Amino acid sequence: MAIEPEKKLFGHAVFAFVINKDLPESQALACQESLEDNGGTVVRFHEKMNLERVTHIISETSDFKEYEQARLQMIPVVKPTWIMHSVLKQKEASIRPFTPDPKLIFSDVHLTCADIPSGDKDAIIGAVLAMGGMESSSLMKVTTHICALTLDHPKCQQALEKNLKVKIVLPHWFDDCLKLGKRIDEKPYLLPDPEVLRLNPEDALPFPTNEDIIGASSPHPDNLPLPTNSPVRRLTVFNKRKIMISQDFQLSSRTRKVIEDLIEGGGGAITNSVHNADIYVCHWREGRDYVFASRAGIDVGNLSWLYHLITNNEWTSPMRRLLHYPLPKEPLKGFEGFRITLSNYGGEARTYLENLITAAGAEFTKSMKPDNTHLITARKNSEKCQAADEWNIEMVNHLWIEESYAKSEMQKLSDPRYTTFPPRTNLGEIIGQTQFDPQKLEEKYFPRDPTPSPGDPKPLRRPVMHEKDRNASSRKSNADVAMGGQDDEIEKVVKKKAGRRASSRSSLAQVTTPAPNRRISAGKENDTPSPTGSRSAKEKAVSRLHGLADDIALYEKEKKRKGPIWGGERAANKVDKERSAERSSSPGQKHEADEEFSDEEDHNPKRQRVGPKTVGMKLLITGYKEWIGAAAKEDADKKKLRELGVLVTQDPKACTHLAAPNLVRTKKFLCALASGPIVISTDFIDACVKGKKGDLPDAEDFLLKDTAKEKDFGVKLKDVVVRAKANKRCLLRRVPVYITKELPNGAEYREIIEANGGTFSVYTGKVPSIKKVNPEEDEGPVEPVYLISGQKPDERKLWPKFTTEAKEGNMMPRIVDTEWLLDVALSQQQKWSDRYLVEKK
């Protein structure tokens, strides 16, 4: 009998390391040895990270290029200490306490409580667990903090006797950290002689040093960094990357030459086209190049960020530090007229805040007068603070200006986070930790154009115009079109596209001339009835062609022009794609688009209709790496697919096929899976794009096969698709599912629930939410009701009330984590196990 080989701890895992100053290569080598001894596979250091292959990323920081994409693909990112804890337990440790996510401020904290009242103890433990920490009832070797009021407790005595490296802190430290949402220094709270109890809040306190704003205190530094192209230290951060430097800096030719030499000497290249760039450096958040780069996923930063890369020779995200990102040209809404001054900040922190205030659109003043509107202070103790109280001037800490700038809108002064001042802490120690909210930036500065789907209404038509008005409008120069708003330009190109489709019939247009001063609209013509009835479709088409003649000429001219994102050929391709999708996706729309020339084609049976094939496949794509940061390639590939009869859709209900590189649990994959589509590999897209023109590969030859992930998730994809077809998007029909409002990415879970026919609600506990079932009328078994929750204190408070409401409604309460929903949606069956319960985590 064959003996099954022993399964090793990391036998299923592939690890990638992020090597930087926080995790040097020597430390990574030691970690690699531990991983390989336990069956793990480690990707070569400094190799480009392939997220399709990697299962875990080891990093001391979240500041690396692939972090956001890894988070979206639910790939765990953990610190090296996770390896040690997993090896010691011979079981994979929980991910959350070892994440480098800066939002989880207690991720390195392993807490045990001493002489703390039970109510306060539960609140502190809940907060630590919710913010990434761990807790144990007894003192252990891995314990980092003891929460106590005195040193009399046995845990404190034991820690002192054994000289353990553990910090004994007052509960006030946890309270102040939670109020600020930031982790401050424990020193003023350390027993046996905490400063917060021994000294007065107004006693002197030195200015703290802060590394987070070094090299990021000004958006436009005056001096170049020190040269790094020496034999001792070669510049490598730009290796194999193309950089475009915008003209809005107005750099001198000498300075620009020095920067370009540094980049090229380090293996990088300078480009003058944003379409070819990997990095785009500019000063303002405006212009076609900025919008294109931002939408395409190209790194966009300012000169300060570029200098920071040169100085440190290490990649960092331009969104990591607020003044490393281009500035808004217009003041943030609400900041006009503000006069702001500072207190209790010194050195580079003060310079940083001065520049941040100016960048937001307010006026910075060195001195304070009654006409000042705001005082930003690191401590609530100074002459300016006293004056602010007397003159009724708003007094806040720096988090208010930082978060307002990061979210591109003024934050409410009533938020207690902005008015919290710990008694013996200078808040300058946490300055510079706030990062941009990418979603807010996108919404305000480079919103993506809405992509029409089959169910969308047709675009609004132009108002009726006289012929002379049309001729006047068509005489605009190319420069006027290029500098106009993008939405206006798109509308113009869409309307001109109608004329392009008719241009092949120009000979017909030369035969007949339209009546003078005819009013023409994009819809039905305003004809005068003739004695013999309505005009023929052919005459209508000819009349339209003459009315659009000038627009056709301008369209053809614009199409040949190479330029920014919405210029020339790119705009034409985009419009071709959108009109093709609209025309082929809906029978009603298709008929409306083609009816102009239906009579003509009937009279000319030998003429072949020119256009894309009828849609035979509606394809939803997720995780296709070839399109990441390559908008131009994406558009070109989608056009080729459409020519083969494949319509790329974003609607999970409409798709007939789902393409993915492997079995994943992303929102798009799970929502589309509920429709029971044919699941294929993204290799099908490569075959379509690179194959012989006009030949559509057989999708059956590209069915997705991923036995490793099937084993990990405990499913068979073939069986899942069969069940999905049978479920008909009703897997969770009449299953009430609630989520807490604090649950991250709640909107994505909502889409998954509703895609499977479930009933979604946000549970707040303020009013009875669970519909009661009459036990006399319902003779069947008690039905479950689900609450998807995290471990935050505010969420835990809802559990008892939810349980009570469910039982009163004759329903079975189940408080679960997100794994339950992801497993149910992926398997397409209502599976249950007690391991999903959050109370057992």
TrEMBL record:
Residues 571-582 have a biased composition (Basic and acidic residues). Residues 5-100, 101-191, 233-323, 330-418, 727-838 form the BRCT domain. Residues 417-544, 565-612 are annotated as: Disordered. GO terms for biological process: DNA double-strand break attachment to nuclear envelope; double-strand break repair. GO terms for cellular component: Cul8-RING ubiquitin ligase complex; nucleus. It comes from the Eukaryota. InterPro entries: BRCT_dom, BRCT_dom_sf, CellCycle_DNARepair_Reg. SUPFAM superfamilies: BRCT domain (SSF52113). Residues 494-503 have a biased composition (Basic residues). This is BRCT domain-containing protein.
